[in-house]
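User: Run a structure prediction on this.
Assistant: Running it now.
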Amino acid sequence: MSDEEQDIVVEEPEQQEEEKSSVASAPEESELDSYSKGVQNRIKKLTEKYRQEERDKAEAVRVSSQLLEENKQLKSRVQALDTGYLSEYGSRIESQTEAAKRVYKEAYEAGDTDKMLEAQQALSNIAIETQRYNTREEIKALLERNVDDVEDLISS
């Protein structure tokens, strides 16, 4: 009987250990499940954040490209308008110069000093306008060179 009692005694601790391990494994599994869910949530959030950053970056690149293109178009328009304006301005100065010279010549031939004085004042004003025109042409040439230099640097 002692052997049987010993066997029973031996079996009881094993049963208790099995019960303890099954009870212990249940919380461990739930802990692992919750930990796994937590990790999955973090991964999901990080993935969403990464994708959002990719979308934001792509949008920023698109907007930047669009703004650069718009800037080029506006610059070309301004340049065309500026060229047209300067061309018209130069033509107007030439025609005013010719008209003022003609008036001065006619006044000189007629001996009309008042008309000569008016023509001389007009020629002086035209000389000032010619200087402004020349300065503007120089500025335009400098700006075109600088824009080309800047564009070369950007494309490099």
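Helices lie at 2-110, 113-155.
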